[in-house]
Amino acid sequence: MSLAVQHVTPQPVPPQAQQQMVRMRDGILLATDVYGADQDRPAPVVLARLPYDKNSRYVFFEKIARRFTEHGYVVVVQDVRGKFRSQGRTLGWTGEVDDGYDTLDWITRQPWSNGVVGMFGDSYYGFTQWSAVAGQHPALRAIVPRVTCTTVAPGIATYDPGSGRQPLWLEGTTYQAQVWTDNDIHEFEIDLARRPVAAAYEEAFEAIGKRSAGFDLIVGGIPLEPYNGPHPYDARPVPVLHCVGWFDNLGIAHMRDYTELAERPGWAAVQYLIADTIDHENYFLEDAPVSPENDHLTDDAALERMLDLYTGPAIEFFDVFLKGSARPESLPRVRWKLGHVGWRTSGTWPLPRAARIELHLDDPADAAGTVPGGTLTERPPAAADFAPWRYDPDDLVPSAAADTFMQLRDHADERPVLDRDDVLVFTTAASETPLDLAGPVHAVLHAESTAPTFDVFVRLLDLAPDGTARLVLRGCAQADRPGELEIALGHTGYRVRPGHRLALMIAGSDFPNHLPNSGSLESPWLTTAPKASLQKLRTGPAHPSRLCLTVLPESGE
């Protein structure tokens, strides 16, 4: 029986939108909706360029447009090249610089446009904003990239594209195969435990009748060149409102963009940050696990509530930088939510009063047992020690969520994973007072393996008094030699409540989110017999494995 594939095709254009086919410099026409246009009243424009069908409920632009047009903006939403109603080759992360420039140029020539444009949107339509920044069109005056980054390319880059080798993001590869094969989206479920793994995707392409050029680049290890102009960091600065999710699977890379640009004089003056306790699909920690009445993907009332929070900061930002109806001083430079507490403001991030502390991994002999395992302590261990852990390609460690784009929708209890005998766990003592994490977190691990290549996955979890464990942060690295690994876990704002403890988990696999290591020099995509291996974590004075946290003083705020 052939693989079942659900083909997602374009939804109808809503009556309040005017669709036009906009010509690019090479003659390709891109399907473009215009909301709220009045040629007698030229207005600033909010543009979004996306690959998920401009008229789908998934992107909810019919509802988003109403919120912007009620505040005096024209809204333009476009299917990017090769997607849905737009013409051209289907290949993501390329061509968006020129198409963005040409679209901006078209907008400035319309009678309903006053020549001032801002851009808005999540994920890939955050990437198209950065592509437009690289194009340096003078009409682009501000952007609001949400849960995105300048460097994302599924399967090629995942948590932290600036920090060296990483395991391949299998979840992102599936996205590439489903979204970037042709104009439609093709939803399917394949057996990722099949060997070779590439054969599972070949079955999907056979069922679709076409294949994804982007997938072939991933399997071939061929990087994409997204910018045919300057990198956005080197382009003309424009005001940016970074909307970051502490639980977003692109959060590490997004915060890398923010911190990098905050150090560049031209960009620093126009950087703004909103960091919320959300995941990639805009589920909130305070609602997790999400009940049906709070699930905006299925409940229309929940969607309306979410969209007010989703669009409000962007409207406020555009009122300053597109309309000029408010002054920049009216906007806090940093708005961030402390998980389990609420919103805070600051002039900078990380916070000036935040301090770095190091928790050393100790008692490694207990780390492979059940929780509490080894210890995390501020006192460095006096003697050298080690803990082994195994990688078994036939018994892979389950991922924190089957779909990390919706990490908080279920916000699963990971205690069963912590108690596996192929992971290492180190925990703090139960906190007597609140411990507020506020800033970057990373782990420094001294590791080695019997294999020529090995992966290290790290999760930081909140271990509650009832024994349940839920994810706070995660990161990963790939190595081909013994030594020190510095693994970024990202930034967070999170309160560890009294009675709770932090747990650090170390594993050799993360399935199905990441491609299992071959354990050899064979391609992990093509191997039919991945090899088991034994890893070793070293601790002690000569090998100070440790967890580095950024925390607030005990006084809190």
Short description:
This protein starts with 5 loop residues before the first strand and ends in a 6-residue tail after the last strand.
Strand content: 25-35%
Categorize the overall geometry: globular
Cα-atom radius of gyration: 24 Å
Pairing-aware structural class of the strands and helices? Answer: alpha/beta
- Count of β-strands: 23
Mean pLDDT: 95
The main sheet comes to: 11 strands, mixed
The residue fraction in helices comes out at 10-25%
Could you list the spans in which at least 5 consecutive residues all have pLDDT below 50? none
User: What's the total helix number?
Assistant: 11
Distance between the amino and carboxyl termini: 60 Å
Structure notes:
This protein has 557 residues and is α/β, with parallel strands linked by helices. The protein is built from 11 helices and 23 strands. The strands form 3 sheets. Strands 13, 14, 15, 16, 17, 18, 19, 20, 21, 22 and 23 form an 11-stranded mixed beta sheet that branches. A 10-stranded mixed beta sheet has the order 2-3-5-4-6-7-9-10-11-12, sandwiched between helices. A two-stranded antiparallel sheet has the order 1-8. The protein is globular, with a radius of gyration of 24 Å. The model has no long low-confidence stretch (mean pLDDT 95).
Salient structural properties:
single chain; alpha/beta; 10-stranded mixed β-sheet; 11 helices; 23 strands
Q: Layout of SSEs?
A:
Layout: E1 6-8, E2 17-23, E3 29-35, E4 43-50, H1 61-69, E5 74-79, H2 96-108, E6 113-122, H3 124-135, E7 140-146, H4 170-179, E8 185-187, H5 197-208, H6 213-219, E9 240-245, H7 251-262, H8 265-268, E10 271-276, H9 300-323, E11 334-338, E12 342-346, E13 355-362, E14 374-377, E15 385-391, H10 407-410, H11 415-418, E16 424-427, E17 435-449, E18 454-463, E19 469-479, E20 483-496, E21 501-507, E22 533-539, E23 546-551
Parallel strand pairs: 4-5, 4-6, 6-7, 7-9, 9-10, 10-11, 14-16
Antiparallel strand pairs: 1-8, 2-3, 3-5, 11-12, 13-14, 13-23, 15-22, 16-21, 17-20, 17-22, 17-23, 18-19, 18-21
